[in-house]
Amino acid sequence: MEKAAVQADGLLIPLIDFSKFENGDDGQKLETAKAILNGFQTAGFIYLKNIPITAETRAHVFGTSAKFFRLPLDTKLSHGWTTPQANRGYSAPGREKVTQLTDINEVEKVRTSAPDIKESFEIGRDDEPGHPNQWPAEHGELVGFKSTMTDFFDQCKALHVEVMRAIAVGMGLAPGFFDGFVDVGDNTLRLLHYPEVKKEVFQINPGQVRAGEHSDYGSITLLFQDARGGLQVKSPSGEFVDATPIEGTCVVNAGDLLARWSNDTIKSTIHRVVEPPHTDEEVHPPRYSIAYFCNPNFKSHIDALPGTYASEDEKKYEGINSGDYLVQRLTATY
Ligand SMILES: O=C(O)CCC(=O)C(=O)O
Ligand SMILES: [Fe+2]
Predict the structure, then answer these.
(1) How far is the CA of 272 from the centre of ligand 2 (A)?
(2) Where's the Fe2OG dioxygenase domain (predicted)?
(3) Interatomic CA distance for residues 324 and 328, integer angstroms
(4) Whose CA is nearest to atom 8 of ligand 1?
(5) Residue among 241, 93, 255, 237 nearest 160 (CA)
(6) pTM of the model
(7) Residue 42: how many CB atoms within 10 A of its CB?
(8) Per-residue pLDDT for the chain (334 aa), expressed as one digit of tens each?
């Protein structure tokens, strides 16, 4: 077993070398698959290193994301997120409210509402009928935006398939068990920007966060974070524990639909993004992250996985259509 990426308050998030699953001998493959499954069953989170997505690709995508967020607000708003069914485009919740704490009434409002200090841009599969992506016009800094993002989307899609293969092997299922459930790529690439923020914002309102606590909805999420920190994962006893960035790794967490699919043998764990740990400055610098939300094909029927129940009455949930489930969850959020 390798060292833990995070270990505190009963939460152990393993750091796993994914190349041993991809390129190792049979023994290494099996051992790695079991470690991955065990991480999802106990913490709901793992860190993967040596994934096929290179550091260069990652740096390029982060740079391109930052260029998007530098566009004028009006331009970004013209690509606004519309409906749960489309789930594509730009969201700027609460940004103005939290950066202009001028009068006492404003402060009071923020105290009670404290919206997340973040903006995001969602990109879906580029060939989903009826739901085009909201690509920004490509001039100036934005030349190449679409190809950068679709390339990255496809690489993440392939990694989803591979991680699901590891889960299948860990569960003693055929390695390709999930292939036909995840081959369409009904996934969402979310670029995230947490703007720079004065420390006092967090002092004025102790409830202020960059992203409120939540679980993710789908199968797994591939989370790429920069070096700033602030991501926290809820431990079994209910404390939030720092999921400190480790260079070159990808944080992977299980979502609610995978938990349901596994008859709750896999955990979808609550997490959030808060004020980053100690800096000497008055202002916290911006934080960028990229979440790739993986889902089973929207047309898939999700029913308790073989081996997760002994008899029908041990199934905790009804079978459900993946797309319906996800739209239901998104409808409740936005
Ligand atoms: O920005 C992060 O590190 C986490 C984002 C997240 O959890 C989400 O968007 O679901
Ligand atoms: Fe999340």
Answers:
(1) 7
(2) 185-296
(3) 6
(4) 291
(5) 255
(6) 0.94
(7) 18
(8) 568 999 999 999 999 999 999 999 999 999 999 999 999 999 999 999 999 999 999 999 999 999 999 999 999 999 999 999 999 999 986 643 334 445 556 545 554 567 888 999 999 999 999 999 999 999 999 999 999 999 999 999 999 999 999 999 999 999 999 999 999 999 999 999 999 999 999 988 888 999 999 999 999 999 999 999 999 999 999 999 999 999 999 999 999 999 999 999 999 999 999 999 877 789 999 999 999 999 999 999 999 999 999 999 999 999 999 999 999 998 887 6
**Spacing, Cα 149 to ligand 1 middle (Å):** 18
Distance 211 CA to ligand 2 centre (A): 9
Closest CA relative to residue 61, chosen from 146, 172, 125: 146
Sort strands 11-17 and 45-49 into parallel, antiparallel or unpaired.
parallel
**Tokens 């909201």 map to which residue?**
134
CA of 242 to the centre of ligand 2 (A): 14
Query: Quick one: which ligand is closest to 255's CA?
Result: 2
Can you tell me which residue has the tokens 């591939």? 222
Closest atom of ligand 1 to 216 CA is 10
**Measured CA distances, 109 to 58, 207, 209 (Å):** 38, 12, 15
Whose structure tokens read 């999700």?
A: 302
172 alpha carbon to ligand 1 midpoint, in Å?
31
- Answer CATH for 3-333 from 2.60.120.330, 2.40.50.1020, 3.20.20.140, 3.40.50.170: 2.60.120.330
What is the complex's ipTM, to 2 decimals?
0.99
Out of 47, 219, 231, give the residue to mutate to test ligand 1, the one with the largest number of ligand atoms within 8 Å of its CB.
Answer: 231
The whole-angstrom distance between residue 119's C-alpha and the CA centroid of its chain comes to 14
